[in-house]
Write a structure and sequence with these properties.
heterodimer, A: mainly alpha, two-stranded antiparallel ribbon, 7 helices, flat, B: alpha+beta, Chloramphenicol Acetyltransferase, five-stranded mixed sheet
Chain lengths: 220, 427
């Protein structure tokens, strides 16, 4: 064991300095059993994220400058801004929820639906978001959720709450029909019908699991 | 089609609720127990020992999940796996969306360590786990030696006793508004002195572990007419004071001391069952003599460490937890307020010190174990200590690179003729 004559302490391990006074120790003995492993730094900050962030900011600034230089052209600035906001929102969600696939699907469906409405609205409200996109995405999400759960062998308690949520989400297009928000009605009708069937299946086959899950997740 | 395996779930106890809300990559709320043997650890046997141990501590199989209103533990069938030490000391264990166990077991050369997320267990609780793990390890490793005579394990409690929420059992509420008022008035204290320093790379913790003879330190404490805990607490305060910048000397030095409630209320739980007391000393206008610091600390301990004080203190928190307004607030809102309360608390604290006390192992293991140590993930300097036989290990955990306080602390002890062995994780 090494000895620091300044601090009057014995030093274990293979360091060449006294941990307390940081003075150099006389010749280190070499065959000492290390007490702590040397742990290399982990570079958490990904280069890819930084590059993407940089490109995003550059694109926003450039498109803003363009719109000032050539005001007559299409409004590129809004497009770029909205595009990037959509991209980042989705990406952040993908990364943050990556450990819970069912939750991930639910969040993506919600965010894509909301964004589609915003896009539709900024590009002159041609109503494609309500008429086609939301019904289609709801039905596909139900399928995807079910297939993923089976393929990944998730336990029922992990996804049953999200099955319920996605089923309820698919019922929403009934409002589009009732309030006459859509002209092309068949996608909404199919979506609502499919969701109703889906929901009833979930309730009948997984009713107990749902009750257990709700009790657990909602205990006060 | 479906595995109809019943998933069990458990509410968090009162103290546990703080940790998931306030943990971050800087303040991981993780602590570590290490047992150093005289021989290199055998990974396969450690795994075998872990497999037996986990059966006796079912709550350690839990994952932590977020409900709408509260966090909860959910039983899982994840099998804990022994690894070689490869993470910085007390690295994060709990990640919001991840379903993983809330502890890890690893080894390095002669050391067996466990790291535990504080929501799962407090020091005393985790020590039970550590005790069982090391006992099984030694017993399996040296089965020829112990053939026939199995050493009696000192941790002996039923599964339900180990899983008990002792806060629920012992504390009742009172008046909510009075409680809030009292907590507010406590927090109106003068802002405590804060130790500043250079953070380590990646927010790592610098540990300086001093191992010494418990008897020698105890004799020193007795010569000052006090106990070991009070002696070390006072010495820590005194060392902090020695390095306070002149401009900040008007601030009190306040140490947070966790208190194991099992000494007041009978409980065998391996979950959280602790409270904290604050021990302060204002050096400005008072004597800075070490013996005067000891006397003041001793008086504060006497005043704070009573059953009535504990009941009073804890009932307030139980009340805050149990009142209907808190209960129906969604989890993110609760988390937000807990974080605010936590930062107010931090404002009133200079450092912390926790003494895990004496670790008892069957005498048959005497020849195999060198020492036990305990470490904590910290955002401010903290001392954690424990004693095994005659080995008192005082670990200085600090987020800062500076070692002045540590030097003053250990130099005081060496100046009294106590032999100290120092080791550090970041030389």
């Amino acid at each position: 064991m090494q000895y620091c004559s300044y601090c009057k302490i014995h030093i274990r391990g293979n360091g060449d300095k006294c941990p307390l006074c940081l003075n150099i120790l006389p010749d280190g003995t070499s065959n000492i059993v290390e007490i702590y492993p040397d742990i290399p730094p982990s570079y958490e900050q990904h280069m890819a994220t930084r590059i993407a962030a940089f490109i995003s900011i550059a694109a926003i600034v450039a498109s803003f400058a363009m719109s000032k230089l050539f005001p007559a052209l299409t409004d590129w600035f809004s497009f770029v801004l909205l595009g990037l906001v959509s991209m980042w929102l989705s990406l952040i969600l993908v990364v943050r929820k990556r450990h819970n696939i069912a939750k991930e699907i639910m969040w993506q469906v919600t965010i894509i639906s909301l964004l589609s409405i915003v896009w539709d609205w900024t590009t002159g409200w041609r109503n494609w978001s309500l008429e086609y996109l939301i019904p289609i995405i709801s039905v596909s999400a139900m399928l995807v959720m079910y297939i993923t759960a089976k393929a990944m062998k998730l336990s029922i308690s992990d996804y049953v709450a999200y099955l319920l949520l996605i089923g309820l989400f698919g019922i929403i297009p009934i409002l589009f029909i009732l309030f006459d928000w859509v002209d092309v009605k068949y996608p909404s009708i199919i979506c609502v019908a499919a969701s109703a069937i889906f929901l009833s299946a979930v309730m009948i086959f997984h009713g107990e699991s749902i009750i257990i899950e709700l009790k657990k997740r909602m205990h006060v | 089609m479906n595995q109809k395996k019943k998933v069990e779930w458990t509410k968090l106890d009162n103290a546990s609720k703080i940790f998931p809300a306030t943990c971050s990559y800087k303040d991981t709320k993780v602590f570590r127990f290490t047992c150093e043997l005289h021989e290199t650890v055998d990974a396969d046997i450690l795994q075998e020992a872990l497999d037996v141990t986990i059966e006796k501590f079912p709550l350690y199989r839990s994952v932590l999940r977020r409900g709408i209103f509260w966090y909860y533990f959910e039983s899982s069938d994840i099998k804990p796996v022994v690894e070689i030490e490869s993470n910085p000391i007390c690295a994060s264990i709990y990640f919001k969306e991840k379903k993983n166990l809330l502890f890890r077991v690893f080894y390095y050369n002669r050391r067996i360590s466990i790291e535990v997320f504080h929501a799962l267990s407090d020091g005393k609780g985790a020590l039970g786990f550590m005790h069982t793990l090391v006992s099984h390890y030694l017993f399996l490793k040296y089965r020829d030696v112990f053939a026939g005579k199995i050493p009696q394990l000192t941790v002996n409690a039923s599964i339900s006793e180990k899983k008990e929420d002792s806060f629920e059992k012992y504390f009742a509420g009172g008046n909510v508004f009075k409680a809030i008022k009292e907590i507010k008035s406590i927090n109106k204290n003068k802002k405590a002195y804060h130790i500043k320093g250079t953070r380590m790379e990646e927010n790592r913790i610098k540990v300086i572990e001093g191992s010494m003879s418990a008897k020698a330190v105890l004799e020193e404490a007795h010569s000052c007419n006090t106990t070991l805990t009070i002696f070390i607490t006072a010495l820590f305060m005194y060392s902090i004071y020695k390095h306070m910048p002149a401009l900040k000397k008007d601030r009190p030095v306040v140490l947070l001391v966790p208190v194991n409630l099992r000494q007041f209320f009978k409980s065998e739980t391996t979950r959280n069952f602790f409270s904290t007391i604050s021990i302060g000393y204002e050096f400005e206008g008072k004597s800075a003599d070490f013996i005067d610091v000891i006397n003041s600390v001793s008086a504060s301990f006497k005043k704070e460490l009573t059953e009535e004080q504990m009941i009073k203190h804890l009932s307030r928190y139980i009340l805050l937890e149990k009142n209907p307004f808190t209960r129906v607030a969604p989890l993110p809102i609760k988390d937000f307020f807990i974080r605010i309360a936590n930062s107010v608390n931090n404002r009133n604290t200079t450092a912390a010190i926790s003494n895990l006390g004496r670790i008892e192992m069957p005498v048959e293991f005497d020849d195999y174990i060198r020492q036990f140590s305990v470490f904590t993930g910290v955002i401010r300097p903290q001392i954690s200590m424990c004693t095994y036989k005659d080995r008192l290990v005082v670990s200085f955990n600090s987020p800062f690179g500076e070692t002045d306080i540590q030097r003053t602390f250990f130099n005081y002890l060496t100046s009294k003729g106590i032999e100290i062995e120092i080791s550090t994780n970041l030389p």
